[in-house]
C-alpha cells in the first residue's frame, strides 16, 4: 500500500466490492470502522434503521470481501440493515438521500443496483428467494452462490421454516447466515428465540460450537483443533444435531459476527467446501459501536435524525397524539371494562400501541413474534372460545395473513376485531409499507364489517363499536402519525353499523370520503366554494356494509359524486360503484370519479409528498370535481377545470 493510501480513509478507495477483495485482511477491520462511522453520520441526517445496520457492518465487509457479488447473490432479509451494503456497493455518494423523496430506498431494491438481486422489506423471504437463485444456478442460469442473511427475529416466521424444509430436502448449495442479535424490534419472543439464546449462552462452547468437519479442515490451523473439540463435545453432550442440522443444513457456529478474524475464515471455508445448504450462526450486537444505540431499549432500531455526538433524536413538534396512541389508550380503557378483550401483535407491541395495554394487562396481550398468519388464526380460535380478540397489525403486514383472514375468520363468521394501523401512505418506508390494499381485500369478503376512521375521535368510537360487535369479523383502519387534534370523547360510542354522516351540504358536487382524508375533502370543498360550486361532504365511516341510502341520496341530489379513500383502486370506490349500479343510479347522468391511489406503487417521500404524487391533495380533489362537473354540461369556467 502507498503512503498516501495509508493516510486516507480506506472507504474513499472503495468504488465497489471488488476493491475489498484486493485489500489485505488487516485493512478490512479498519475499513469496517470507517464504514460504521459513515453509517452513523449518514443516518444522523436522514433517520432510519440505524441499530440493525450497525450490527452488520463487519458482516457486510466480510461477505463482499469473500463472495463474488453481484454474480453471487446476496439477499438481506427485511433489508432494513442494508445501509453498510449500500455504501460498499457504489451508493455512498447518495447515502444521505436515504428514505427521502427521489433518494435511495431504505431497503434493497432490484431497480436500484445489480447488488440488490432481490427486494424486500417484509420479513422472512430471504431463504426462499436465495433457494430460487440456487435452483436457477443449477439449471444453468448465469448466477453464482446464493447467500441469505436473516435475523433472529425474521427467522421466527413460518416462511423461513418452509424455505429451510425445502432447502434441506433439495440439498442444493445454499448459504444462510443467521444474524443473531437477540433482538427483533422489541425483545424477541418465543421458543425459537430461547433456543438460539441457549445455543449462544453456553460458553465455553459459544465461540465455535458445531462445525461440519469439512469446514473445520479448511480453517486456519490455529482454530481447527478448538473447533473440532467443540463440535465433538456438543455432539456428545446433546446426542443429536442442532435444529438446523435436523432440517438438512450443515451448521457452523456460533461465531462472533463482529470479529473479522472469525468471519473471514469461516466464510472462506464455507465458500470452498459447501456442497449443500449451510447455516452460519453469527452473534452480533444490534446498534454495535454507537453507545446511544446500544443503550436504547430498541437498540436504535428506527431513529429520526439525531445529533451524532449525543445520539439525541430530533423530536417532532408537540402536537396531537398519534392515532396509534389513541388506539392503545382506547383499547386499554375498553379492556378495563371488559375482561373478555384480549389483543395480539406480531412483533410490534410499540408500533401498534399495544404495549400500553400490555403494561396494564400483561396476561391479555400476546406478542406472537413475526407471525401474522398465526396471529390471525390464533385470534380466530380465541374468538371461537368466546373471547373478544383485537388483532392489531399494520395494513401492509396483514397481507401476509390474508388466507387466514378468509379461511379462518370470514368463512366461519368469527368476531375477530382487526385494528389496522398504517393505513394509506406511510412516508419514508415507501411502497413496501404502504397500507394500500386492505379496503379492497376486506370488503370483498362476505360478512365482514369494514370501517375507516376520519379522525382520532372517530377511532375511539370504532374501538367501542368493534368491542361490542359479536356477530362477525370487523376491521377499522387508521393512518400512521399524528391525529388531527380533535377533542377526544371520554368514552367511545357504539356506532350504528353501516351508517355514514353528512358534514356539509352543497348543491352541485357530493364528496364521499372514507377515512382520514376527510380534511382534504373539506378543504377541497372550500376551494370549490370559492369558485361558486357547492359541495356536500359526507363521511361514509363504513366501507362495508355501505350506507346505500346515503350513497343513493348523494347521487340523486348532485351532478357529480366523488369517492375519496387512502387506498388502492378496487377499494371503497368500487364498493360505491357496485351500489350505484345495483340502485340504477348510473341512468341519471351522474358523473362519478374515484379519488384513490393510482395503479402504480408510490416511491418513498413524506406522506404529503406521496399523496401529491398520487394526485390526492385538496386541490386535486377540487380539480377532479370541476373536471367532472364540466363534463356534465354545467357551465364551469375553463380556467377552473384542470
Ligand atoms: C412480515 C413482517 N412483519 C413485521 C415486520 C416489521 N419488522 C421489521 S424488522 C422487524 C424485526 C426484525 O428482527 P431481526 O430479523 O432480528 O432483525 P434485526 O433488526 O434485529 O437486525 C420487524 C418485526 C416486517 N418487516 N415484516
Ligand atoms: C423495517 C420495518 O418493517 C419496521 O421497522 C418499520 O420500518 C416500522 O415502521 P413504523 O416506523 O411505521 O413503525
Ligand atoms: Mg435481531
Automatic annotation (TrEMBL):
- Which PROSITE patterns does UniProt cross-reference here? TRANSKETOLASE_1
Keywords linked to the UniProt accession: Isoprene biosynthesis, Magnesium, Metal-binding, Thiamine biosynthesis, Thiamine pyrophosphate, Transferase
Tree of life domain: Bacteria
Cite the binding residues for Mg(2+). Answer: 152, 181
Q: Which Gene3D superfamilies match?
A: 3.40.50.920, 3.40.50.970
How many cofactors are bound and how?
Binds 1 thiamine pyrophosphate per subunit. Binds 1 Mg(2+) ion per subunit.
Q: Which GO terms describe its molecular function?
A: 1-deoxy-D-xylulose-5-phosphate synthase activity; magnesium ion binding; thiamine pyrophosphate binding
**Which residues of this UniProt protein bind thiamine diphosphate?**
80, 121-123, 153-154, 181, 290, 372
The signal peptide here is none
What sequence ranges are listed for the domain Transketolase-like pyrimidine-binding? 321-486
Judged by the first EC level, this protein's enzyme class is transferase
Q: For this protein, what reaction is catalysed? A: D-glyceraldehyde 3-phosphate + pyruvate + H(+) = 1-deoxy-D-xylulose 5-phosphate + CO2
Q: What is its EC number?
A: 2.2.1.7
Gene Ontology biological-process annotations: isopentenyl diphosphate biosynthetic process, methylerythritol 4-phosphate pathway; terpenoid biosynthetic process; thiamine biosynthetic process
Cofactor(s) needed by this chain? thiamine diphosphate; Mg(2+)
> Pathway listed for it?
Metabolic intermediate biosynthesis; 1-deoxy-D-xylulose 5-phosphate biosynthesis; 1-deoxy-D-xylulose 5-phosphate from D-glyceraldehyde 3-phosphate and pyruvate: step 1/1
Q: Which NCBIfam families match?
A: dxs, PRK05444.2-2
Role: Catalyzes the acyloin condensation reaction between C atoms 2 and 3 of pyruvate and glyceraldehyde 3-phosphate to yield 1-deoxy-D-xylulose-5-phosphate (DXP).
| UniProt similarity note | Belongs to the transketolase family. DXPS subfamily.
Q: How does it assemble?
A: Homodimer.
Q: What is this protein called?
A: 1-deoxy-D-xylulose-5-phosphate synthase
Q: Which organism is it from?
A: Salibaculum griseiflavum
Amino acid at each position: 500500500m502507498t503512503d498516501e493510501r495509508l493516510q486516507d480513509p480506506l472507504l474513499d478507495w472503495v468504488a465497489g466490492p471488488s476493491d475489498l477483495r484486493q485489500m489485505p485482511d488487516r485493512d478490512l477491520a479498519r475499513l469496517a470502522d470507517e464504514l460504521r462511522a459513515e453509517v452513523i453520520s449518514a443516518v444522523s441526517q436522514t433517520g432510519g434503521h440505524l441499530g440493525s445496520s450497525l450490527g452488520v457492518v463487519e458482516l457486510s465487509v466480510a461477505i463482499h470481501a469473500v463472495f463474488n457479488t453481484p454474480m453471487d447473490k446476496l439477499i438481506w432479509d427485511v433489508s432494513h440493515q442494508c445501509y453498510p451494503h449500500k455504501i460498499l456497493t457504489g451508493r455512498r455518494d447518495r447515502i444521505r438521500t436515504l428514505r427521502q423523496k427521489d433518494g435511495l430506498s431504505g431497503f434493497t431494491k432490484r431497480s436500484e443496483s445489480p447488488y440488490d438481486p432481490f427486494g424486500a422489506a417484509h420479513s422472512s423471504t430471504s431463504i426462499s428467494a436465495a433457494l430460487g437463485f440456487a435452483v436457477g444456478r443449477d439449471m444453468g442460469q448465469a448466477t453464482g452462490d446464493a447467500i441469505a442473511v436473516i435475523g433472529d427475529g425474521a427467522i421466527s416466521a413460518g416462511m423461513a421454516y418452509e424455505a429451510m424444509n425445502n432447502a434441506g430436502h433439495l440439498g442444493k448449495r445454499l448459504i444462510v447466515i443467521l444474524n443473531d442479535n437477540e433482538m427483533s424490534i422489541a425483545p424477541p419472543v418465543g421458543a425459537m428465540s430461547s433456543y438460539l439464546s441457549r445455543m449462544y449462552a453456553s460458553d465455553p462452547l459459544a465461540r465455535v460450537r458445531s462445525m461440519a468437519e469439512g469446514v473445520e479442515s479448511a480453517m486456519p490451523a490455529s482454530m481447527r483443533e478448538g473447533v473440532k473439540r467443540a463440535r465433538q463435545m456438543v455432539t456428545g453432550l446433546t446426542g443429536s444435531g442442532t435444529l438446523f442440522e435436523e432440517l438438512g443444513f450443515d451448521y457452523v457456529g456460533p461465531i462472533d459476527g463482529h470479529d473479522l478474524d472469525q468471519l473471514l475464515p469461516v466464510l472462506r471455508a464455507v465458500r470452498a467446501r459447501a456442497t449443500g445448504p449451510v447455516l452460519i450462526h453469527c452473534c452480533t450486537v444490534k446498534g454495535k459501536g454507537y453507545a446511544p444505540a446500544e443503550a436504547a431499549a430498541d437498540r436504535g432500531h428506527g431513529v429520526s435524525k439525531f445529533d451524532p455526538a449525543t445520539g439525541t433524536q430530533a423530536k417532532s413538534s408537540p402536537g396531537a397524539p398519534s392515532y396509534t396512541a389513541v388506539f392503545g389508550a382506547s383499547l386499554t380503557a375498553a379492556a378495563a371494562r371488559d375482561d373478555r378483550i384480549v389483543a395480539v401483535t406480531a412483533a410490534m407491541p410499540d408500533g401498534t400501541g399495544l404495549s400500553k395495554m400490555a403494561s396494564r394487562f400483561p396476561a391479555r396481550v400476546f406478542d406472537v413474534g413475526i407471525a401474522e398468519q398465526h396471529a390471525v388464526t390464533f385470534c380466530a380460535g380465541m374468538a371461537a372460545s368466546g373471547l373478544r380478540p383485537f388483532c392489531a397489525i399494520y395494513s401492509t403486514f396483514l397481507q401476509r395473513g390474508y388466507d387466514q383472514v378468509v379461511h379462518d375468520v370470514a368463512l366461519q363468521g368469527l368476531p375477530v376485531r382487526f385494528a389496522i394501523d398504517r393505513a394509506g401512505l406511510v412516508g419514508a418506508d415507501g411502497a413496501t409499507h404502504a397500507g394500500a390494499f386492505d379496503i379492497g381485500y376486506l370488503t370483498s369478503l362476505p360478512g365482514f364489517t369494514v370501517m375507516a376512521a376520519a379522525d382520532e375521535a372517530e377511532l375511539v368510537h370504532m374501538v367501542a363499536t368493534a368491542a361490542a360487535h359479536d356477530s362477525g369479523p370487523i376491521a377499522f383502519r387508521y393512518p400512521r402519525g399524528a391525529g388531527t387534534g380533535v377533542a377526544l370523547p371520554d368514552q367511545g360510542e357504539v356506532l350504528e353499523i353501516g351508517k355514514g354522516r353528512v358534514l356539509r351540504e352543497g348543491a352541485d358536487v357530493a364528496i364521499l370520503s372514507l377515512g382520514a382524508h376527510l380534511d382534504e375533502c373539506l378543504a377541497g370543498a372550500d376551494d370549490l366554494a370559492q369558485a361558486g360550486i357547492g359541495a356536500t361532504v359526507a363521511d361514509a365511516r363504513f366501507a362495508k356494509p355501505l350506507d346505500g341510502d346515503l350513497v343513493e341520496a348523494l347521487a340523486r341530489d348532485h351532478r357529480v359524486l366523488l369517492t375519496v379513500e387512502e387506498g388502492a383502486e378496487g377499494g371503497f370506490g368500487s364498493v360505491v360503484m357496485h351500489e350505484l349500479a345495483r340502485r340504477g343510479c348510473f341512468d341519471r347522468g351522474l358523473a362519478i370519479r374515484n379519488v384513490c391511489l393510482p395503479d402504480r406503487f408510490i416511491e418513498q417521500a413524506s406522506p404529503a409528498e406521496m399523496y401529491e404524487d398520487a394526485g390526492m391533495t385538496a386541490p386535486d380533489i377540487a380539480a377532479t370535481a370541476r373536471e367532472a362537473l364540466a363534463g356534465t354540461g354545467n357551465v364551469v369556467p375553463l380556467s377552473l377545470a384542470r
